# Entry
Amino acid sequence: MSRLQLGVVGAGAWGRNHVRTAAGLADAELAAVCDTSEPTRQRLARQYPAALVTADLNELLGKVDAVIIAAPAGTHADLARRCIEAGKPCLVEKPFALTTRDAEAVAKAAATRKVPVLPGHLLLFHPAVEQLRALVAGGQLGQLFYLYGLRLNLGQVRQDENALWSFGPHDVSVALFLLDETPVRVAAQGHCYLQPKVEDVVFLTMEFQSGVLAHVQLSWLDPHKVRKLTVVGSKKMVVFDDMEPREKLRIYDKGVERPPEYASYGEALTVREGDIFIPKIASVEPLAAELGHFVRVARGAEAPRIGPADGVRVVRVLEAASRSLAGGGAPVAM
Ligand SMILES: NC(=O)c1ccc[n+]([C@@H]2O[C@H](COP(=O)([O-])OP(=O)(O)OC[C@H]3O[C@@H](n4cnc5c(N)ncnc54)[C@H](O)[C@@H]3O)[C@@H](O)[C@H]2O)c1
# Structure
């Protein structure tokens, strides 16, 4: 079978990782890269002499079978629509779009033209997140109580996205994936410390019909680099720490129990301190897993694990959170 011809649109700080990964895939070939920056194109032409390097999307579309869109967030919806129009499957980096309306328009175009479109929800391809999801779905944690995520570091300070739109898609997509439901209410508070109208720090809370509460702290103005998610269930608690090189998942056999005979007495609650289990996590680079899946989907060899509807759901949460942010943190019903 001939190798799938892949194109990457936008090869900046993140897109260059797509370019590198696409160039290393066994069943695909980096056929073209499109970037509007001349110095970036010069660098790419030197590094990937076999690929077409262009500033013209149409030229790229004429050369490839499928497209990865990693240009700035504001361009995603329009670029995705142009790829769909050309009948090319596309992987759209997060955020899928900047408004629910745009996200829905992309989803509609994809459905009408029957073109596979994947939102770039990278963490769903993280083996630790997949394992965490299996634990939740399999009931090993018991009844899910709440979860909280921390996504903090110093920089990269962006001008075209605030911390909510830059980091939020990761944690929101993971929360929706783990819980398999969308929030009924969201609230977000944040502040612009470095530039006007761009929140550097955002605290987002999501409430779910099931009673689960999810909170995420997002910041590029923090002394620590933290990528952590804690999930608390009635039987077990799990911490996913992506900064840990190997032991990324810790399952705590801890909880608070109420003997049946004391069902109504708070004093009878007993703390259970059990073992800590560290499962072996496959060492798979999430980006390689994401692109490998995208290539198989584009070939028609695999059903998409996620689709435009997932992109729309996440954008809808972020949009509601933005409204809450603008309203000083007042909860917004979804
Ligand atoms: N999945 C992840 O973990 C992850 C991580 C970082 C960034 N991202 C996302 O990737 C996207 C790109 O982020 P970045 O940090 O690389 O930004 P960046 O500004 O460093 O790079 C964007 C690149 O796109 C080019 N560009 C701009 N408009 C274009 C257009 N219309 N057509 C073609 N090229 C165009 C620019 O010249 C630049 O080279 C953003 O949406 C960002 O949120 C995802």
Notes: The two ends are 46 Å apart (CA to CA). The domain at 4-122+286-306 is CATH 3.40.50.720 (Rossmann fold). The pocket of nicotinamide-adenine-dinucleotide is lined by residues 9-15, 34-37, 40, 70-73, 75, 93-94, 120, 122, 166 (CB under 6 Å). The longest helix spans residues 308-326.
